[in-house]
Hints:
It is a single chain. By secondary structure, the protein is an alpha/beta fold. It folds into 2 domains: 230 residues, P-loop containing nucleotide triphosphate hydrolases (Rossmann fold, 3-Layer(aba) Sandwich), CATH 3.40.50.300; 74 residues, Alpha-Beta Plaits (2-Layer Sandwich), CATH 3.30.70. 32% of the residues lie in helices and 27% in strands. It has a 6-stranded mixed beta sheet, sandwiched between helices. A hairpin with a 2-residue loop joins β9 and β10. α3 packs across α4. The relative contact order is 0.13. Bound molecules: adenosine-5'-diphosphate and magnesium ion.
Amino acid sequence: MVHLENLTKEYDLPPVKGSPAQVVAADRLNLTIGDGEIFGFVGPNGAGKTTTLKMICGLLVPTSGSVEVNGIDVERRPEDAQRFLGYLSDFFSLYDDLKVWEYLDYFAHAYKMPAAQIPARVTEVIGWVGLETKRDAFIQGLSRGMKQRLGIARAVLHDPPVIVLDEPASGLDPKARVELKELLKNLNRKGKTILISSHVLSDLEEICTSVAILEKGHLLRAGKLAAVMQDAAAPAHRRLRIRVAAPGDELLAWLSTRDGVLDAHPSASVIAGSSSVDFHFAGSDADLAALVRDLVMSGAPVCAVEGSSESFEQIYARLSGGEVM
Length: 325
Ligand SMILES: Nc1ncnc2c1ncn2[C@@H]1O[C@H](COP(=O)(O)OP(=O)(O)O)[C@@H](O)[C@H]1O
Ligand SMILES: [Mg+2]
């Protein structure tokens, strides 16, 4: 559906002695985003998310490389491509003194939709974003989450198959974030392909099918969410926790003598009557099986062996720290 090829954007910087003349905000990005995906662009501020999304929508001309949306070259035929795209920018403005339905009606006319279809379409998108009870409310009285949903309603007015949302969750409270996620899942179920950016990784982890991890214009990793996380999780260094149904330091002492056990330390939370140790383990599944067998054979009352999986945040921190790359 969306295809990026060597997509590059360099911005000229004001001349300052000793500083580079340009910043590379997107550096030869290659990505293919399939039909029906919820595709997340993840990265800290300045990573190049906004720049990339604007180029995808034909709002910013690439320095080099290209974007295709539904087979259409965005730079050559921006208006044709934009029929397939709905875009919500990171800082969009609404007209406070319009009512919800008036705002959508206004844009429907601006998009030159057939006038006879507009009332039904406005009602439909208001339903899509769950603003039925606010239809006649003035925009200035809406909560931030509602304004965000109204922005999304505007972006989908012309029923584009692809929706591009730049940091839609930023500034929303937890409840509004949950509602936004539900809304995006619903739109996705209606067949929309969604491109979404965030610097808050947990916002994307739950809803995205695929992610691209960006930093300073570079694509660090991209692919199916599970694959990116698994690939990045460096199984050679898994984090484990073993618990024995006996208090004391014996487990820690025993583990500390074993090959492959690194950084063993008592777990932060202790269950009464037991002791628990967290450690990194550099070894295969067979090595781990041998460790557990030896521990049981030594007479330790082993009651739990858990792998503590890394959060997306931790993986990201490691990736962008360059340890894995
Ligand atoms: N209009 C601009 N002129 C010069 N530099 C810019 C401009 N827009 C963005 N940049 C720079 O490009 C880089 C990427 O910015 P941006 O795409 O906004 O990242 P993000 O959305 O991930 O925060 C940053 O270093 C930013 O300072
Ligand atoms: Mg941005």
